[in-house]
Amino acid sequence: MKRFIPPDGVMGRRSPLEPPSGGESLSISSIENFPRELVPVEIPPHTVMLRGIGWDSNVYLVRAGKEVLIIDTGTGVNWHVYTHIWEKRGYLSGVEKAIIFNTHEHFDHVGGNTALKEWLNRKGIEVLFAAHERTAETLEMGDDYIILAYSYGRKFEPQEVDISLEDGDRLKIGTLKLELIHTPGHTAGSACLYLDDGETRVMFTGDTLFNGTVGRTDLPTGNGWKLKESLERLLEFDVDFGLPGHGKYIEDWKRNIERVLRWPQ
């Protein structure tokens, strides 16, 4: 049986989830000197994208009425930069409830969970955590074999996940409903969220799919064949914008997946 080789290495790119090595350490960005290219990308009518700083994942904000959905939180090193932008732009004005959804278990996507919750709580905003059931189990155990906080010189404390989701479940934010699609491969708990509000169709892909490549599969619970099956399933969806865990957004959805699947197997 031939092995499915994800194209991230083939394309000569450093994987978006390659932990610091060789003595590198995470450094905290100051508000005054945050990267000037870090400007919000607004995807009407509901979504704001912030490109992750350094090792951080991208961080997304979806708003419907007085509720918001935050998708992934980075390593927790630069959370104050993201909240500064949200506050400065008024994205959280009048918000009463937030759900933080983690697309999978890795530290560069979940490390900011606690800091963001505490900050939102200080603003009087109720916060709930949500994830696919496999990711929820890992986070509640604080299983660092999978989370990989140690690779960043950090520690992840076990956290309670309020909403544990299965494939096909819908996550409700205000009047919006996002469908969870379980997409194992990068990790066993990897999941995408699909939003079709009748105007714009958006898929939040985590590290399952990027623009031109995919997440690595050689870390704990990764599986190349399962990733291939997940990508083939994602081809079935009509998507205007794919919003990945790292890097720029995906415009040509089906062509992007087909190009990735054409790599040698």
Write a structural description.
With 265 residues, the protein is of the alpha/beta class. The chain has a single domain (41-261), classed as 4-Layer Sandwich (Metallo-beta-lactamase, Chain A). The protein is built from seven helices and twelve strands. A seven-stranded mixed beta sheet has the order 1-2-3-4-5-6-7. A five-stranded mixed beta sheet has the order 8-9-10-11-12, with no helix packed on it. Strand 10 (191-196) and strand 11 form a beta hairpin. The longest helix has 11 residues, at 79-89.
Say how many strands there are. 12
**CATH top-level class:** Alpha Beta
Q: What gyration radius follows from the Cα positions, in whole Å?
A: 17 Å
Assign the CATH topology: Metallo-beta-lactamase, Chain A
Indicate the CATH architecture.
4-Layer Sandwich
Relevant CATH superfamily = Ribonuclease Z/Hydroxyacylglutathione hydrolase-like
**Main structural class:** alpha/beta
- Rounded average pLDDT: 89
Spatial strand arrangement across the major sheet: 1-2-3-4-5-6-7
Q: How many structural domains are formed by the residues?
A: 1
Which stretches are poorly predicted, pLDDT < 50 over at least 5 residues? 1-25
Major sheet description = 7 strands, mixed
* Distance linking N and C termini: 10 Å
* Strand portion: 15-25%
Number of helices: 7
Outline type = globular
What string, H for helix and E for strand, traces the elements in order? EEEEHEHHEHHEEEEEHEH
Helix content: 10-25%
